[in-house]
Amino acid sequence: MTRRRRLVVIVGPTYSGKSTVAAVLARAGYFVVSARRTLASTLASERMTRKALIKAGADLEHRTQGAWLADAVATSRTRRSVVVDSARTRSQLTSLQRLARTARYRCVTIYVTAAEPVRRRRFDLARTVGSDFEMKEWRRLASQELEARTKRLRSAADIVIDTTRLSRRDLGSLVRSLVVR
Q: What distance in Å separates the CA atoms of residue 43 and residue 83, rounded to the nearest whole number?
């Protein structure tokens, strides 16, 4: 009997550890669908600023009713389990869950969070190592409507992981024990 493929959808606020969770799953053999890369390729621009990407993403979100991310998973045609590194809206999550049912994936939603001071410290670190986005102030980033909507997705999660006190190594061990079996 073959195991059913998984579709792991990671949700959570900015700088909570979503990319780290996706990287752990990638090392375990999961195919990664990057929301940012998918959005940039859909919009035919890899070099958009974060502000422009957010605006264009909101337009795409409205036009597709959140289905653009599920479409990226469906068109990947991979036979492996898949991890979506960042669903940010209820409609994206709903579209991904619908795809999981029709494509016979076992869907697991992971909400990744961290205390605000930890997220801010990660933001500051990313800025010092030359991150490619223009958001200069944590306050502006953290107060965006998209951040508030993302936090409301916590109630839809199958697993909640608080990375506040976890090292990358501990986070990796936890994710492998919860998801990779």
A: 21
